[in-house]
Amino acid sequence: MSRSEHPIARLRGVSKIYGTTQALSDVDFSCFGGEIHAVLGENGAGKSTLMKLLAGVIQPTSGDIEVNNAVTRLTSPADAMVRGLVCMFQELSLVPDLSVRENLMLGAVGTGLGRLNASVVRSAQDILAQIDGGAIGMKTRVADLSLAERQQVEIAKALTRNPKLLILDEATSALNASVVEKVFRLIRAERDRGVGVLFISHRFHEIESLADRISIFRNGAHVETFDNGAYDYSAIISKMVGQRIDDLFPPKPPANPDAEEVLRVDGFSWTDKLRDISIVLRKGQITGLGGLDGQGQGSVLQGLFGLLKGTEGRCVVGGIPVTITHPKQAKNPKLGIALVPEDRKTEGLILQQSIARNLELAALGTDGIDASDVTIYQPFLDALELKCRSLDQPVGELSGGNQQKVALTKWLALGPRCMLLADPTRGIDVKTKTQIYALLRRLADSGVAILLVSTDYEELIHLCDEAHIFYQGRIVRHLTGNDVTAEAIIAASLNIPLPAQTSEAANG
Amino acid sequence: MGNLLRSNQREAIAILVLAVLLTLYLASHPSGPNTYVITIWANQCLILALAAIAQFFAVIVRGIDLSVGAVMALTNCVASYFVIGSGLDMALGIAAVLAVGVACGLFNGAVVVFGRIQPIVATLATASLFVGLALLLRPTPGGRIDYDLADAFTLDVFGIPTALIIAAAVIVLFWVPLRRTGLGLGLYAVGSSEQAAFQSGMPVPVIRLVSFAMGGLFAGLAGLYFSFVTTTGDAGIGPNYTLNSIAAVVLGGVALRGGVGTLTGAMAGAFILKTIGSLMFFSGLPPLAQPFIEGLILAGAIAIGGAGVLRVRNRLEVFGK
Q1: Closest CA in chain A for residue B259
Q2: B8 touches chain A (CB under 8 A)
Q3: Are A353 and A228 part of one and the same domain?
Q4: Cβ contact, residue pair B189, A116, below 8 Å
Q5: Which chain A residue has its CA at the smallest distance from B181's CA?
Q6: Chain A to chain B, count of Cβ pairs less than 8 Å apart?
Q7: Which residues of A touch B (CB under 8 A)?
Q8: How many Å lie between the alpha carbon of A99 and the closest alpha carbon of chain B?
Q9: Which of helix, strand or coil describes residue A282?
Q10: Rounded CA separation B293/B297 (Å)
Q11: Is A364 buried (19+), middle (13-18) or exposed (0-12) by CB count in 10 A?
Q12: Angle A447-A291-B311 (CA atoms, 0-180°, nearest 5)?
């Protein structure tokens, strides 16, 4: 690790004001070449604003940005890219209707509006092959890719633009552990070549394993920068939130495998995506679905919620066999199923509409519930501490964490018997995560059965009472109690036997 | 190969439908399939095809252009004054006609990009402006285009209608090369996701402006070709072509939400629409029933393009793109 002598980019007294909101106030910040610099902070702490300034998407209200020791005005992403500042955005920068190949060529170095250059496609393919993305078809439309595949393409696209400073904003949020490790290998190689890397992630273990230095932001101000390892886990968290959070996860009550069954599926299958899935959800239990991305976990939730056509298998809710063919049937109080989808921006919320209107959506058309009655939502909004100006504010203006609170609340108000959650904490800050974890545990304690798809194995370990691990549309392992360990989850995700089991087999 | 066919599914369907309709038309025409019949058909189709290309450039960047017919009327009137005389006169006249088209397109683009006005409203206003100018030039139909020049563009070369050669040239010499540039890609990027295009480092306002300018150019070409076919100037030709150009791009598989479709598809849509009209004329159907049948065929053709929805196994994909 040879850190460059001068910073590649430097902010001096930078402030950014949106209307009446101060997103960044008087920030001094430097990033050097040959160093991986993690930026930590709650949502709304100013991390994304910082990234957007460096990427040329927005310009500072006051203060200067220096690139290579010269004060520079970054007027557009193209301008920033020419100077070697390349950003991989959390809000994906891929064009959905264009193919992977076309997206890689779009805006590539030296192309502009002129002749397209196919050489970037080849180097991007090399990069994709290194991060388990080799199977992604170059002619596939980006809209047809999974979220994880899109992130892999984003990473490849950013790396083909010869970055001097690579900015990664939640670059790995939808990727599973084994791909993340490969991406990290790539990022470390870039660092060793002298590239500076600015890295935002909400996953602590990722930052711990990757970062050389860590900067903390809080409420738009730069709090502190220190070498990785200088502080422990809980000290870092308390710097971020300004108060100590003792534990990320709420304490787990003893599992109760004999609790009353709420929902049971047997031999659930759908096209070639799901094969013979059997899951039992019990009152008060949180059941996790893990595995690599796109192994069918998400389809199980959609199938149970009546979104898939042509599903097979038996489904029993509250002791009565049912065939769920429509979300309206699923959310009916007789069944009481709720689904909080994976992509809150497109599937969970209507971003232009107000918080109040969004909250009403699930309750509308449900018997016995007055959707326009704000008091049915308020307890959940209070428990989750939703931060907003008023309920008339458009949801799109909220931070990611607060958006998710709205998406959760609209279903909680129906008092569901069974909650299906697709990666509810993806790309969300630590404080909101703890709030959501605590809420889910409280819901479980009150008798709700919860089915949770997660890409973060810490959630499966610390939050869930049991976990099913998927591989190619099948459940390959069912883990309960103390068997839910990081090693067991990763091994099952890759469909390889646990090291311990291998030795047993050898002995036997 | 399967992938290629799937990604061009809309265009493939459009071309198939066109082939069927053309066969029917030629079979039902009283004088049978001869060069004369095909040339007349091709000329009519090319006018609408050029108008549809003009519409395509607005729609592809998530806009719509209600001034296509108006620009045609204006350029038609300009042509009826200047495309006559010596060879040099005519060359300058044609240049002037196309320059007027480009200027109209740039004006539309500027109102949309810098005025931040929705394309549908902006072009509704500019359409009136352009027709107003055309009426000042030609209060009543009149003027003349050089007959020899008009013949050269509207007859045939060795039995192949010149109109079809022009159509092929537009695709091969203009569209295919454009598709291989950052600009060609940028049109789709801006239409599909403006934010993603911007964050990928594309100059979004420039692309949108250029797209409208190219739309103006093709509306001008449509007006010019209309002049060759009719050899006169008429300020009242607009409204019909505007609506038909929109129907043509939709028929040709161009999504009105932007970012999807091809110029070739837009042209195919125009050929289909015109062929349906011609088919009606010789069909022997009562004239009063013809608009009804024409509409039915149009609706049917569009429904075929949407038939994929029936095969969707995940209900969410019905709402997706």
Answers
A1: A97
A2: no
A3: no
A4: no
A5: A115
A6: 116
A7: 55, 57, 76-78, 81, 87, 89, 91-99, 102-103, 105-107, 111-116, 137, 139-141, 143, 157, 270-271, 299, 302, 306-310, 347
A8: 9
A9: strand
A10: 6
A11: exposed
A12: 90
CB contact under 8 Å between B203 and A76, yes or no, is yes
Could you write out the DSSP letters of every residue in A151-193? HHHHHHHHHTT--SEEEEESTTTTS-HHHHHHHHHHHHHHHHT
Instruction: Residue B5: count other Cβ atoms within 10 Å of its Cβ.
Output: 10
Shortest Cα distance, chain B CAs vs residue A256, angstroms: 35
Q: Enter the tokens of residue A484.
A: 């839910």
Tell the residue number behind the tokens 């061009």, with chain if given: B8
- Least CB-CB distance to B197: which of A95, A114, A270? A95
C-alpha span between A191 and A196 (Å, rounded): 6
Nearest to A106 among B200, B260, B321 (CB): B200
Nearest to A163 by CA among A74, A59, A88: A88
CA pair distance A499, B253, nearest whole angstrom? 55
pLDDT by residue for chain B (321 residues), tens digit each? 455 555 567 677 778 888 898 898 888 888 878 888 899 999 999 999 999 999 999 999 999 999 999 999 999 999 999 998 888 999 999 999 999 999 999 999 999 999 999 999 999 999 999 999 999 999 999 889 999 999 999 998 998 999 999 999 999 999 999 999 999 999 999 999 998 999 888 999 999 999 999 999 999 999 999 999 999 999 999 888 998 999 999 888 888 888 888 999 999 999 999 998 888 877 778 888 888 887 887 787 677 666 666 777 777 777 754
Question: Which amino acid makes up residue A184?
Answer: F
- How far, in Å, CA of B211 to CA of B201, rounded? 18
A324 contacts in chain B (CB < 8 Å): none
| Domain that residue A299 falls in | 261-506
And the tokens for A112? 């502009």
Q: What CATH number corresponds to the domain at position A23?
A: 3.40.50.300
Please state, in angstroms and rounded to a whole number, the distance separating the CA atoms of residues B8 and B18. 16
A269 and A237 in a single domain? The answer is no
Average pLDDT over residues A54-61: 91
Establish if A412 belongs to a structural domain: yes
Under an 8 A CB cutoff, do A105 and B185 touch? yes
Residues of A in contact with B313 (CB under 8 A): 270-271, 308-310
CA distance B278 to B287: 12
> Hey, are the CB atoms on B3 and A137 less than 8 Å from each other?
yes
| CA nearest to B245, candidates B83, B127, B84, B98 | B127
- Tell me whether residue A248 is in a domain: no
Domain membership flag for residue A15: yes
Domain B2-319 has what CATH class?
Answer: mainly alpha
- Whether chain A has a CB inside 8 Å of the CB on B182: the answer is yes
How many domains are there within chain A?
2
Q: Do B185 and A77 touch (CB under 8 A)?
A: no
**Orientation angle between helical segments B290-305 and B263-281, nearest 10 degrees:** 150
